[in-house]
Fold this protein.
Amino acid sequence: MTTGEEPLKVAHDAVNSYEQTVNAILSFAAFIVHDGNNKRPDSEFGIGRRMTTSKENPIASNIDITPDIVAQKSGKYGVVAEVKRSLSKNQKTWVKHIRRLRKYDDRLKGWWIEKERIPHSDTIFLIHQSHERLFTRFLEAKKESEPELVGPNTCVVQFNYSEERVTYIFFRLEFGNLHDLKLNQRLDEGVSIPLDDVRISFPIIHFYDAPPPMPWLLLRLWTDLFPAMIEGGEWDEKTQSTKIKVSIPEITDELQKAFGSKALRHDHRSGEFPKKRWVREALERLIKYKFATPSDSEDGNYIIYYKFFKKGDVLERFIKLELGKSDVRQTEDERQLKMFPDLVDE
Amino acid sequence: MQRLKTPQEQREFESFINALFRLDDYDKVNNEINNINIPAPYRLRIKVLYSQKPVSDIINGIAGKGNLENLKTESNTYLYKTIIGRDTPEKIRVPFLLASFRENDLPENVQAIISICKTNQWNTLRRFSKNTYPRLVPIRLSQVELIQCAKKLKQMTGHNVNVKALSAKEAFNGEKGEHLKSLRVWTDENLEKALHSIQDRHQIITSIDIEFFQNIGGHSNVLPRATCKIRKSGEIEVTGNYKLAFNAVASQIAKVGEKKLRFFSGRGLRLSQYEARPLAINFIQPVFEKVDEVRNFVDILSKYPRSMHAVVHGNPYAHVKLTDIYDGSSFDVWAISPARIALMPGLKASEAAFGRLVQYIFDQFKEGHIAEYDYRGRTLESSS
């Protein structure tokens, strides 16, 4: 690989990583709520669901938190999980993951039952196999040195993709024990969930509640949403493109219905993704790349100058455009959409 | 078959055909087509078309503008005019009848263009049909559908059906690896025997010529009543009894095509109120056991004509995003199971785009069985 190709590969890996995280979230949630044949009675799950900590929470009491996964197996048991496909090499930054887990390891409010509090729950750090061992050692050391930093119901589960004949996602419990003995035993032995099953159950979910790499969002807009809007557009002779007027709330709503939060069961605590600010950022990028302009009427809308890219790979095209940015990997601002969110310290 | 040799004879024949298509009654046109002897190089040709609206609405919407004009509104006949060739331009005028399958209980959104013309004239009609895509969608048949159509003919018509010839592609090992060679095979085998031989040799059929022989008390006539060349592109060339060919062969193609495109319809997320309605192409044997096979599939999808593509993942499983440039339909194509391809429709996914993509995968990769991508796996064949 030449030096020029490496950033391209890194960027492509970031897109893959995001997609694999989505798959891991969906398959782990499915593992909790399905018994292999049917959905369990009273089971539910949410991605980025808004839960509320108790007043006894040692990190932050009575605040709203949004774990990546909240999965209720029954009216008596559920798990909250945070998912990490990759981690920073700087172990000092790992403490904040442990603090977050401690915050989640609580009698949270927001379950799908009356009074919203469940009798038993566990808090799981779902981490890719490549980082799991080091993180678990780090967690064990912290438990020794600062016992109050690790909650009583905290577990670590590793996940990995098989590269065998059938593509599946493998999960195994590496730290702690789950209250639910059956789930505990299965996870302790290791569970393989075929990716095919995950996609049969959730064919169109492409986002979760963390910002995607920018090329991933641009790809979805350019190859899916805007082509479906061409009929309502207006041909522009000067630019030889179709002018499509778009608004951030409308686009966000459609992306959520089609590929995000609203394609799952929705209530007042449900997470919302993709978020408006991600979409705004994507449209600003399109302005930068001269594929869009702000609307003349100052209504906060945008005009897309749409053309089909007939040659080359569209994802690669957006990655290359993004690589033209100089500040891509330096930004530390969590509120900003980063090109490689998983590779940047949170 | 008689052949018209001189330009004068051909002009006279074309004038006669024009007069036929100018008859002022649909049934009269149909009857006269059935009665005439058609000399070479002319052929009776049929092309089955599908549309979201009645096909006649689309054709009438185009007629009067550009190269297409109405010949007789009451007869559903039209004249297509164009000029072909740059060095020696030739004026082409092809009359055609737009025939419905009402008598075969099929809706008006599947109809057929019927013409009596030479090959170069027919090719201009083909181009006209191509240029109206995706408003008019050609019925494309898979090999299985083509064979099923042929099999049903014997039982439908009560005739003995023989395979006269077939055009196919067959794999062979050359110096630079495996290639496909085109072949034309003449035979007089009965249908079942010919189909077995096709399967044994793993041939990919592009067209099949079949002959219908009248059968009375177990005795078969030695002269065929009709000969039909059926192409996978949903086109038929007929020699002999036109009505037999139309009611048996064309209506069968229309039925199979209409059912398939109806199965593909309403799956775009906007139309389905954001309820996912993905499809699967299932294979009897695994097709993605080796990484090379996944790579080959990704490579094929990357070359899908008239599309935008993005390879999200290519190894060990495939996830490719495709957008159809004709109408903006989009699909996420996944190969994550050894014996299955999943096609997830995007916000817009017309039945025409679904059909084009499936046929491309069948032609360029491997033919499989279409079904819902869910745990029940209802198949196209079992759909009503």
In short: Chain B has three domains: 7-138, 143-232, 279-372. The two ends of chain B are 42 Å apart (CA to CA). The first strand of chain B starts at residue 43 and ends at 50. The mean pLDDT of chain B is 91.
